[in-house]
Write a structure and sequence with these properties.
Blueprint (H helix, E strand, L loop, with lengths): L1 H26 L16 H8 L6 E4 L3 H14 L8 E4 L11 H15 L8 E3 L2 E3 L14 H8 L18 E2 L5 E5 L4 H6 L6 H12 L8 E4 L13 H18 L3 E5 L1 H8 L5 H4 L4 E3 L2 E6 L2 H6 L4 H23 L1
Parallel strand pairs: 6-7, 6-8, 8-10
Antiparallel strand pairs: 1-2, 3-4, 5-7, 9-10
């Protein structure tokens, strides 16, 4: 008799825990859990029991014990957070709508009223990459926008931490109607000092590449995803890149180049939003909103590994041939 009572007590605890977990998952939007059962291993009585459909029981909707313990400290620190209250919720059958408690309805109304009031400035958002301030409406592309409008909007930008260590903003430059556009990662020390993109040793090599395909730098539009030099020339963080990238996209929308050459892995991933590496995508045209994009190695990388110059030259010949063919086609 004593063993039976102990067993019942244990079963009651298990059932309560399962019901509590089910209610918690239902509040998160989980409606079902799939798993496989080998029917051949079940006893006949057990198989018959599992085959009999059961009506969902009334359960207590609450957060599991472990989650409650995690939230307890936070609630005690907040001070103003009301204690969690359990409430009875009847699990709906198929085809029935769940009854929402009145306190949840009131909370939803308050949330709706708050969300309809647009703030004066975009509120910072916590993302996987840290705290990021969304671009406001003035930073979105406009049909009548000019490159000068974008530059004025950027101003002495302090939108991300890179502004604290840079000497000056390095804006894009070049022909406003360029057929070819080069996009790098971020300014280096020489660019930060002079306020112009690609003016150091890597920039000098880029000038030679441009001349090798029969064009002049004055005919090209050149810029970077980030306009401020990262400390010690480190790679910009995703949050830093996402803050500055919209200005580049607006410039692309204004210039409307036929081809964009992305220089290096970081610039390629930021523009194309791909997880593939430069060695896999280089040499083949990609697409950005109908514009041909050629990924290739960054000139700074070529200075460190000159053996990659041949591959880069092969990539640039494809760009040259495409532009030449495009010119012939348009003349016809």
């Amino acid at each position: 008799m004593k063993d039976t009572l102990q067993l019942r007590g244990m079963l009651r605890i298990v059932v309560e825990d399962v019901a509590e977990q089910a209610a918690y998952l239902r509040e998160l939007g989980v409606e079902s859990l799939e798993y496989e059962i080998n029917a051949t291993t079940l006893q006949p009585a057990e198989a018959a029991r599992r085959a009999t459909p059961l009506s969902p029981p009334d359960v207590i909707a609450s957060t599991p014990a472990r989650a409650l313990s995690r939230n307890a400290n936070a609630e005690s620190r907040a001070g103003s957070v009301p204690p969690m209250q359990k409430r009875s919720v009847t699990a709906p059958r198929v085809g029935e709508a769940a009854t929402v408690p009145s306190d949840q309805t009131d909370m939803a109304k308050q949330t709706t009223r708050k969300s309809t009031a647009a703030p004066d400035t975009p509120a910072p958002m916590e993302t996987l990459f840290g705290i990021v301030t969304p671009m406001d409406e003035a930073s979105l592309p406009r049909p009548d926008e000019t490159l000068e409008d974008i530059r004025l909007d950027i101003g002495e930008c302090v939108r991300c931490p890179l502004s604290q260590s840079r000497h000056q903003v390095v804006n894009s430059e070049g022909h406003p109607n360029a057929r070819l556009m080069f996009v790098g990662e971020a300014p280096g020390a020489d660019e930060d000092a002079q306020g112009r993109p690609f003016v150091g040793r890597a920039g000098q090599l880029l000038n030679k590449i441009i001349e090798a395909i029969g064009m002049k730098r004055e005919e090209i539009f050149i810029g970077n995803v980030n306009r401020c030099r990262p400390p010690q020339n480190r790679t910009p963080t995703p949050a830093e890149a996402s803050t500055c990238k919209p200005f580049l996209l607006r410039e692309i929308d204004v210039v409307k180049p036929e081809v964009i050459v992305v220089l290096g892995n970081t610039a390629m991933k930021n523009l194309l939003g791909t997880k593939e590496g430069i060695t896999k995508l280089r040499g083949e045209f990609q697409d950005y909103r109908g514009i041909k994009v050629m990924p290739t190695f960054h000139p700074a990388y070529l200075l460190r590994d000159p053996s990659k110059k041949r591959e880069t030259w092969d990539d640039m010949k494809k760009v040259r041939d495409y532009l030449n063919h495009s010119t012939v086609t348009s003349d016809k």
